[in-house]
Amino acid sequence: MTDVGSRRHFLRSSLGASALAVAGTALPLLGGCASAKPAPSAPAPVPGARFAREGTFINYNEYPLGPCESAREALVEIIGQTGFYRFDLIQRFHDSLAAHLGVDAEQVILYPGSGWALELAPRVFTSAERSLVVADPSYEACEQVAKRMGTPVHRVPLLANGAHDLTAMCAFPDAGLIYVCNPNNPTGTITPREAIVSALANKPADAILLVDEAYIHFSEEQSVIDLVASHPDLIVLHTFAKLYGMAGLRCGFAVGQGDALARLRAMGSDAISVTAAVAAQASIEDQTIVAERRAYNSGVRNDVIRWLQARGVECTVSHTNCFMMDVGRPGKDVAAAMASHGVHVGRSWPSWPNWVRVSVGTREDMEAFKTAFAAVQEQGVLAAATACAPELRLCTAAALA
Asked: 350: exposed, middle or buried (C-beta count within 10 Å: 0-12, 13-18, 19+)?
């Protein structure tokens, strides 16, 4: 299966050359962490009949509770104004976001989802002579664009602990763009900040380091946005699609400076809807959302990983709302078996064909996952999981909190 339905697929499939005047997204640690109290366990309101769907969907790394309450209220209030462009509200959000991040407004580009930036970056910074360097497995948006362009792509396996091997990734003299997804999708693993600092010092001088922090809010890691001020060859992407629960609203941004950001901005900027702008504005003003949702996600994730380990299933050490599990046979077969029980999990990567990505949903979602997974095991679909485990191992999840 390709990337159909992934967090950025519909953008890739619909963008023509003329549409590429708008680009990717990013967003650092939005929303203060003033409170660490657990998030409410109740699921988001049930959609009306026109929008309901049957089954449990834990396949695209979405946050299952949707936008926070203040963002929902803003969305309701803005509906009557959506007949107008309201560029003023988009500009207000742009300026507020920059202030929240502690950067100049000129250092921020807004995009309708960070996928736009991932579409544009390879077009701007790579060519037939300037390669793209990526980890494997990792998110493939840049790689897919590069392949369409005829750009050379260097894939570097993750280290044994799941981190990007940035020493190896920075060793390609023809590199034009080095893509780092941190925390990593699909494994949920972390590349230490000090490794990124070292990469900035040791990569080819004219290569751009693109750090995609779509999942940073789920972790305790510090964003590297603060490094942009002293590194014009660094661009950081964030999105409101993950912890902020706004996947369908499409809002994200890039932070950078100097010539690199100017080249990206030349392809278009600030092309977000007023609905996305007001919802994101409300989200960054919420001082509890990050800590609450991080705590809720961690509790649910760690519970299901412990349950899988007790059943002999190895999982990656995840710091996000997704993890990979080793099912010991082609992952697509197990995903299909799970879907027959109404539970839709993620996909496998070519280099890890026996590992399946699982997104973390609500507690109720993950109980449904356990029930379906146990049934699949009992059917014998996973009977050979231990014996057929692949040679390529990432790590165990023994260090759960």
From this structure: exposed
Q: How far apart are CA 30 and CA 108, in angstroms?
A: 14
Question: Rounded to whole angstroms, how far apart are CA atoms 117 and 109?
Answer: 9
In whole angstroms, give the CA distance from residue 298 to residue 271.
Answer: 33
3-state secondary structure of 339: helix
Angstrom distance (rounded) from CA 165 to CA 134: 10
Length of the chain: 401
Round to whole Å and give the CA distance between 3 and 134. 17
Q: Which are the contacts of 147, defined by CB distance < 8 A and separation ≥ 6?
A: 153
Structure tokens at 21: 């005047």
Ordered alpha helix ranges (H), 43-187: 69-78, 87-101, 115-125, 141-149, 166-169
Q: Which residues of 330-344 are buried (b: 16+ CB within 10 A; e: fewer)?
A: ebebbbebbeebebb
Q: What pLDDT, in 10s, does the model give residues 161-211?
A: 999 999 999 999 999 999 999 999 999 999 999 999 999 999 999 999 999
Q: What does the pLDDT look like over 286-333, one tens digit per residue?
A: 999 999 999 999 999 999 999 999 999 999 999 999 999 999 999 999
